[in-house]
Specification:
8-stranded mixed sheet, Rossmann fold, alpha/beta, elongated
């Protein structure tokens, strides 16, 4: 009887020690923030249009659920279990677009769209890609943004474009991937705003010539 109790006690102790060991191996997720750089131009252009409201960018569901995504192959999508975005990437992209537009001075005022007010223009966009892409032994980042500018009074699409940025990483590490994606986002946003500036400038010049001819 004593031997049975002793065996049972040893068994319980073993189970408790095993559970404690498992508890000590619990892994908690790491969270990452997109640090999108903004390049402030040396000189601001004269405003081409009046007010614009920037609606929060849209994105596929897999890019806004938290885990950082990667593509092991063109046909496969996967996620890091313990590496997550600290906030919805759509907010970071939208904020970067607002800052870039304010810095360029293309509009007399730039605000986030909240459904109120009467802005002359509305800027909408989508985050099409924001992930790591594996190509054999190569590790790349891919960032693709699309945007369009709409005249709310007429419904006319004044401008639209897509910017895609890719970069090859020397070593695969999640902090390195996040840092490169941040840089790519800054480049993509800058390209879109430059494209918008060129398009609006050409459109404004054409309209002025047309008015003069009349």
């Amino acid at each position: 009887m004593r031997n049975s109790k002793l065996i049972l006690t040893i068994g319980l102790v073993t189970v408790i020690v095993s559970l404690a060991g498992c508890a000590g191996k619990i892994r908690y997720p790491s969270y990452y923030v997109l640090d999108v750089p903004t390049v402030v131009p040396a000189t601001r252009s004269a405003p081409i249009l009046g007010s614009v409201a920037v609606r929060e960018f849209d994105a596929p569901r897999f890019l806004r659920e938290g885990p950082i995504a990667y593509r092991p192959s063109p046909e496969q999508l996967d996620f890091y279990d313990y590496h997550r975005w600290a906030e919805d990437p759509r907010r970071a992209v939208t904020a970067a677009m607002v800052r870039e537009l304010q810095g360029r001075g293309l509009f007399r005022s730039v605000d986030l769209f909240d459904g109120r007010g009467s802005p002359e223009c509305l800027l909408t966009g989508t985050v099409d890609h924001l992930e790591e892409v594996d190509q054999g032994t190569n590790v790349l980042t891919e960032v693709t943004l699309s945007a369009r500018l709409i005249n709310l009074r007429t419904g006319e699409v004044l401008w639209q474009d897509t910017s895609s940025q890719t970069a090859k990483l020397d070593q695969r590490s999640v902090p390195g991937i996040v840092a490169e994606i941040s840089q790519d986002l800054g480049s993509a946003v800058g390209h879109l705003v430059s494209s918008m500036q060129d398009g609006l400038t050409v459109g404004s010049s054409s309209q002025n010539r047309s008015n003069t001819e009349k």
